[in-house]
Amino acid sequence: MKVPVSWLREYFPSPLDPYEAAERLTLSGVEVESVQPVGLLDPLVVVAEIRAERAIAGQPSAREYEIAADRTRRLVSNAAGLSVGRKVAVALPGATLFSADLSELDEVRQSEVYGVASEAVLVSAAALGIGDDATEPVWVASSALPGTPAVSVLPVDTITDTDRVLHLAILPNIARCQSMVGVAREVGALLRREVANPPGSPAYSAERKLSPTISAPDAASVLGVTLLVNVKVCDSPRWLRRRLALAGMTPINNVVDASNYVMLELGQPTHPYDARLLPSLDLGVRRSRQGERLLTLQQAEGEEPMLVPEGVPLIVSNDVPVAVAGVIGGRQSSISSATNSVLLEAAAFDYVAIRRSQQAAKIFSEASARFSRGVNPELPALAARRFVEILRESSPELTVSAFGEVSLGVPPERTITLSLRELNESLGTQFQLDEVVTCLARAGLALLVDGASQTLSAKVGNARPDLVFPCGLMEEVARLDG
């Protein structure tokens, strides 16, 4: 899980130190593999002074420059305005920059240009994440020393204009951290910080009702569908593309991007279909039959459709497979520039069924990574509303035309009782009851405390499937106390 710090900060009303957050997460069992600086914050983006200029044979528009940065280096460029004595920001090999269209993060590599080894690259404001201009170099004051990190000499807001990315190793017992909201709550609990709630999304209504079905109750418990009309497919807003790129996902179009954004934000995958290309709007979940095939999004148009293993949960439309449930969608009903109506699927799947499904189909996706570890079954309706809200920013004319949901019920809250004596004997500690209550309250648990018996009862909802027994509460106390 890649967590952009600028996104994470939205959940905290006061400043957040990413390195402190990374240390506390790792010590608590949520391993942060690295804190990656991006753009201007990368220490490999430095001040360079142009020391010499030479022509390149056969290339009248490009020049070779000798620059002083961390050491003397060569650089090839056709940018205007470069001259001996000027100072400019450059990125050295290994630096991570934004691509010009914000579709991804690029790592700078040493390359050969016109037969000349280029050991650095000029950087634009867009590449550094501090502006929109992707054409002009970033000039630096003449007083700046060559080799100095550019972030120390450029006048930018390093909290909002630039970024770092936390790289989290997600294990099955910390599935709650597969979303920005989940990571924020974990950081807040560890650092004893107040955490803002995720944005609320308005409910919608429509006169027309859809009737999704679940024929495999062992594979799915909730299936919701929402029909959107008057949808305009286009590029997503810049802020959204930037966040997806930082989180390791490639922006595609505003519909697909809204689905991916909601998955990253809430941890609930959704799937949009081109409604015109579906045999029916009443989707269903059933197990696959022998010999069924599906052309998936991983395959190119014209390829032989994949043979779906028998018994795999499918999303079907009029009994025709349109997706491997919780894993990957079908190409035939995918979103394109011609799409003007979208059917959104938001469902809750059994994590064991999806784990077996992705193994059988040999397909691993961002959605299956979450479903196979367990997703809160109470999230589908919220995710659908959030999708509509995000998409409406780039397609303001869209209308919710119809929706429907089938639910087989979600597991009730669990009550776990823990005695103070049992906890202290197990951990070798001398906690007081109020200290234990404070720790578990920070974990978001509702508590009933019996002072006379020195016990507490915790109400545990579906957001924490890892907490089942008293030992789970003991672990929470130990982690959060440090």
Q: What is the element layout, followed by pairings?
A:
Blueprint: E1 2-4, H1 5-8, H2 18-27, E2 32-38, E3 45-56, E4 59-68, E5 72-77, E6 87-91, E7 96-98, E8 105-107, E9 111-113, E10 116-118, E11 121-122, H3 125-128, E12 163-168, H4 180-191, E13 208-209, E14 213-214, E15 220-229, H5 238-246, H6 254-266, E16 271-274, E17 283-287, E18 293-294, E19 306-307, E20 313-317, E21 320-324, E22 328-329, E23 341-349, H7 351-361, H8 366-371, H9 380-394, E24 399-407, E25 414-419, H10 420-427, H11 433-442, E26 446-450, E27 455-460, H12 470-481
Parallel strand pairs: 13-24, 14-17
Antiparallel strand pairs: 1-12, 2-12, 3-4, 3-6, 4-5, 6-11, 7-8, 9-10, 15-23, 15-24, 16-23, 17-20, 18-19, 20-21, 21-22, 25-27, 26-27
Structure description:
There is one protein chain. The protein folds into three domains: 41-152, Beta Barrel (OB fold (Dihydrolipoamide Acetyltransferase, E2P)), CATH 2.40.50.140; 208-407, 3-Layer(bba) Sandwich (Phenylalanyl-tRNA Synthetase, Chain B, domain 3), CATH 3.50.40.10; 414-481, Phenylalanyl-tRNA Synthetase, Chain B, domain 1. Helix content is 24%, strand content 28%. It has helices at 5-8, 18-27, 125-128, 180-191, 238-246, 254-266, 351-361, 366-371, 380-394, 420-427, 433-442, 470-481, and strands at residues 2-4, 32-38, 45-56, 59-68, 72-77, 87-91, 96-98, 105-107, 111-113, 116-118, 121-122, 163-168, 208-209, 213-214, 220-229, 271-274, 283-287, 293-294, 306-307, 313-317, 320-324, 328-329, 341-349, 399-407, 414-419, 446-450, 455-460. The strands form eight sheets. It has a five-stranded antiparallel beta sheet, with no helix packed on it. The chain has a five-stranded mixed beta sheet with strand order 13-24-15-23-16. A hairpin with a 6-residue loop joins β7 and β8. α6 (254-266) crosses α9 (380-394) and α11 crosses α12. The two termini are 23 Å apart. The relative contact order is 0.12.
